[in-house]
Amino acid sequence: MMPAARHPTPSASALTASTLSTGIVPPEPPTIASDRPVQDSILTPSRWWRVMTALSLVACLLGLVCLQVGTQYIGVGRIIGLFSSLLFDRPVDERMVDTTGVILFQVRLPRVVLGFLVGSCLASVGVALQALLRNPLADPYVLGVSSGAALGVAVAVLFGIGSTVLALSILPVCGFVGGLVALAVIYRMAATHEHLPIHSVLLAGVILNAIFSALIMFITSIMEPNRSFGMMAWLMGSLTAPAYPVLAALSGYLLIGLVLLFKQVRVLNILALGEEPAHSLGIDTERVKRFIFLVSALMTGAVVSFSGMIGFIGMIVPHAVRLVLGADHRLLLPASALVGGTFLMVADTAARTLFVPSEVPVGVITALAGGPFFVYLLVWRKDRLA
Amino acid sequence: MTRIDSTAQIPGGGPESGLVAHHAYTVGGVHFSYGPLRLQGEPWVLRDVRLEVAQGEILGIVGPNGSGKTSLLKLLAKLAVPQEGEIALFGRPLRSLSHALLAQTVAVVPQDSPQMFPFTVAETVLMGRFPHRRRSGWSLGFGWEDREDCQAASQAMATMDIAHLAGRAVTDLSGGERQRTMIARALAQAPRVLLLDEPTAFLDLQHQLGICATLRRLCDKRGLTVVIVSHDLNLASQYCDRVGMLRAGRMCTIGAPAEVMSVDVLQEVYGCEVLIDAHPQSGLPRITLPRHGMPFRG
């Protein structure tokens, strides 16, 4: 049927068998002296381990400091003593009568752990969304995902679900649904336009934020006053010490989300190149995008349902980490998780200690730190945002 | 670079497929438009395009703005799917090939797009190794590059003359350096078919020549098949085995540069007159713009 079909040559059939699959035939003999320059300018496993170990150490040390300070100072020796007594199974009564132990284990430890988890999840979601939208300013808070999740939770609370035993499992799901609605809008925009300007995504986030905030305010205003006060406090972003079962449930959601995101690190690298290059490198971009959006909404929903709207961590932390450690998501994602966790842990400690006896919502602190940074990026680093 | 295990995945052993192995691409009667099928009267972006790309040749696609050059390239890369007509890659319908498999055979260099994130040049080039990377469950998808990947990347970077930029961030590169990085990424992919969209748009003369010579060498020595979309008629004339001219979504003419590049054809396709003489070295057509702006005829 084709002209060539009439002239089968031996070389043609030889080619078929050996080379129809892949590769130039055969690989070119290398003409280069060494691959040293490449080795030196990429992320290597040894560098990964060095950075991650250092960051983990810093996180642990700062965690220890956060456990020490508060209305009552607890020395390092005391903390170590209390932990060892917990580990080596001293009688329960002995720990419980000790008020220091109560403060440490019932108030500070869960709060510090919660802060770390929430911070690392927000930072990881920020990394994922930034790669997906190819927008270094993307952040669950800025894009309206957080307020979508908050709206979902607020609706659930309005209908009284929040006070039932189901709350533990239902509230994160409601938050998930709300966050998903917001992401669906962003996704529609990102899917229909080939090269979506950064600013129009941000604009969509602003509009979503406005709509969701209005609805949340509406819900708050028709609630009973004492419940609406609790709602406002939660919305501003707070990390009040959770009970251990709650903490365990939250860590469940978040750890699953983190592992699912970590499995996509190389794909995130390629997606950051652009949609079509990713496609031509063999990635099913639509499927991956949907998957990452789902995981992001799940994590944001879980975080918001427990700690309200803590903003800008998902933007500041990945940005700073990228500046220092480079853009490779294999390092960027876990390092951002560690730095984000540490950052929120410290910010929360500041929130509860700086203005004793009153306590500032940690969302206020992160917004005060993140807002100006955001403006700085938007106004003075325009050239970098194309 | 050739992996034995993936040979089995594109069965090419059958007698029929063996016979058409000459053709890297067979495009038959392709109609294409973006979005869902347009209403009646709406124009196709590509209409009834037929062409064959022989293995080891360089095919140039030229034509005015909006004539569908980039769309055709997207169809060949399966970044878009035609509404009508079939495209076959080495005798296999493109539809039946998965993207992962396709990525091991076909590399694409897209038009320049600004980069957002400060990946280093070496990291960007190494992304071309992604299709050849074995996935392993225990490493959480980290898939560290091995020696072979680094060597392929170094080779590609040396070929594209960007080895000295290895540690620079792609966000800090000039347009031409970024372009060379993207071509190096495609070369590191070790493809059998290379699709390039305006590869020389941002390049200085030296690197334009360098890239053309490299492509020529890979085609002649390694059997690489190249499809180039370009605005540069002279480059197409000097370096392509055949040139196809698109106009308003139709393939006007396709053939060796000496047959295709004539004053009449160019006038028909581009709607303006040009001067054509012979290149002093190769004797191939050389296109020159006339001194004064020519009036439109048509």
Number of helices of chain B: 10
CATH homologous superfamily grouping of chain A: ABC transporter involved in vitamin B12 uptake, BtuC
Tell me, what's the shape of chain B?
A: globular
Flag low-confidence runs of chain A: 1-26
**What is the 3D form of chain A?**
globular
Approximately how much helix is present in the residues of chain B? Answer: 25-40%
Give the overall pLDDT of chain B as a whole number. Answer: 81
Report the top-level CATH class of chain A: Mainly Alpha
CATH topology of the largest domain in chain B: Rossmann fold
Distance between the termini of chain B: 52 Å
Give the spatial strand order of the biggest sheet of chain B: 6-7-8-3-9-10
Largest sheet of chain A: none
Q: Helix count of chain A?
A: 17
Q: By helix and strand content of chain B, what is the structural category?
A: alpha/beta
Main pleated sheet of chain B: 6 strands, mixed
How would you summarize what this structure contains?
The complex is a heterodimer of chains A (386) and B (298). With 386 residues, chain A is an all-alpha fold. Chain A has 17 helices and no strands.
